[in-house]
TrEMBL record:
One of its GO terms (molecular function) is zinc ion binding. Residues 124-136 have a biased composition (Basic and acidic residues). One of its GO terms (biological process) is ribosome biogenesis. The keyword Cytoplasm applies. PANTHER family: ZINC FINGER PROTEIN 593 (PTHR46095:SF1). Residues 152-165 have a biased composition (Acidic residues). Residues 1-68, 109-165 are annotated as: Disordered. It comes from Hortaea werneckii. This is C2H2-type domain-containing protein. Its main location: cytoplasm. It is found in: Cytoplasm; Nucleus. Pfam families: zf-C2H2_jaz. Residues 113-123 have a biased composition (Basic residues).
Amino acid sequence: MPEIGLTRAKISTTAAGKDDLDSNSATGDQPQSSTTTSRDNSKMPAIRGADSKKKTRRHTRDLDQIHADLHSRRHLEQHIQQYDEAELPALGLFYCIPCAKHFESETNYAKHEKGKPHKRRVRQLKEEPYSQKEAEAAVGLTTDNGRKKDDEDMVAEDEVADEVR
């Protein structure tokens, strides 16, 4: 016999003539078939790819922040106090300021200081970071009117222009 649909519950008639209440449709849910599976978010790829996830995980401090750490002890202490010492490698004893990295042992820290990435970062930090004023000047947002001309200078320029004609 055909299935009879109701608004809140789905009652189907079996071959024996008994009415059975489908438990899934009593709540308004559709029964899930064996082919439909729920998505497991842990296995889903990143929206922009796996490489993007790695990049965010490896994100280090910007050069201007590190430059401020090198020149201001207070700025460095504020940054280090953000982390719990118990969670840091070697309780935060071996910290490379230019690279903004913690190391597990003194030997790892010493090897790091001899390495190319550390030396490259130190070379980058020798250059002063750009200020906001310099950035605006490069774009052309500042006004450069020069020095104001005096009345005497204007008269002198007019005389020179008359002589040239």
